[in-house]
Design a protein that fits this description.
Elements lengths: L8 E2 L4 E6 L2 E6 L1 H7 L2 E6 L5 E2 L4 E7 L3 E5 L4 E6 L1 H5 L3 H4 L8 E5 L11 H9 L1
Antiparallel strand pairs: 1-2, 2-3, 3-9, 4-6, 5-8, 6-7, 8-9
């Protein structure tokens, strides 16, 4: 069963975004991690790297495939989850919690308005 969290917003490329104080925490959603299978490696741009909405800032390697991680919002990477870099399987276990990937200091927080809430995302992936 796929989990959907109401306190995050979703992209069409299966990332999620959650505002946490002055940053936006980012990860891949439960649907994506389940589709990928066991995640074995992750690469993420370094802290201080500028990212743009919809552009890749990393990659996830799973037993089934490799997929890009796209930024849900433009800004600067403020923090990378070192625990996920050491143990990428955390994404499979808890994609919305311990399995988050990076935190971005947004250029314009209003960009989040373009993302989908849980209900809209459920309809999107059902198509």
């Amino acid at each position: 069963m796929i989990d959907f969290y109401d306190d995050v917003l979703y992209t069409k490329t299966n990332e999620w975004a959650r505002k946490v104080d002055d940053v936006v925490r980012v990860g891949i959603d439960d649907y994506s991690q389940a589709s990928l299978g066991d995640i074995v490696h992750i690469e993420v741009a370094e802290v201080g790297t500028r990212v743009e909405t919809g552009k890749s800032f990393g990659a996830i390697e799973a037993t089934k495939s490799v997929t890009e991680i796209n930024a849900p919002i433009s800004g600067v990477i403020a923090r990378v989850n070192d625990e996920v870099l050491k143990a990428p399987g955390l994404i499979n276990l808890a994609p919305f919690d311990e399995g988050w990937i990076a935190e971005i200091t947004p250029d314009n927080i209003a960009e989040l308005d373009a993302l989908m809430n849980a209900e809209a995302y459920k309809k999107f992936i059902a198509q």
